[in-house]
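Extended Data, panel c. Modelled sequence:
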Amino acid sequence: MNTKAQISVEFLISIILVMLLFGFALFFYTEKNTEFINVQQTSEAQGTAQKLARTINEIHSAGNGVETKLYLNEIQGFDFNIEVSQNKVRVYWKDNFTSYALTTKNTQYFYGEASTVWVKNENNRIVVKYA
């Protein structure tokens, strides 16, 4: 009878050790996965800010009356807002933001969640609005 009890105790200890190892592995996996998602979101937000800023700078350089429709990337997995103010473009998400510089301060203020926008040069003032 003693050997059966000993085998049960050894089995339980083995199961507990396997569960602890699995728990540690799961913890490190989710931590790395969360960090990967944060890096991906930051990269996509920076790309969106850069794309909009580059378009605004090109429209400003092209002169009065130029306009274009810009399709911004849908950033997967999170909501974001775009702000165009003075000489910068900012993309906000969660508790973060990323900025990109503009060559002009003469912009009309724009803030919103948009995937498609019009960028226009109206009397040498850059206007960004929903498409």
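Strands lie at 67-71, 81-85, 88-93, 96-101, 110-112, 116-122, 125-130. This feature is highlighted in the accompanying rendering.
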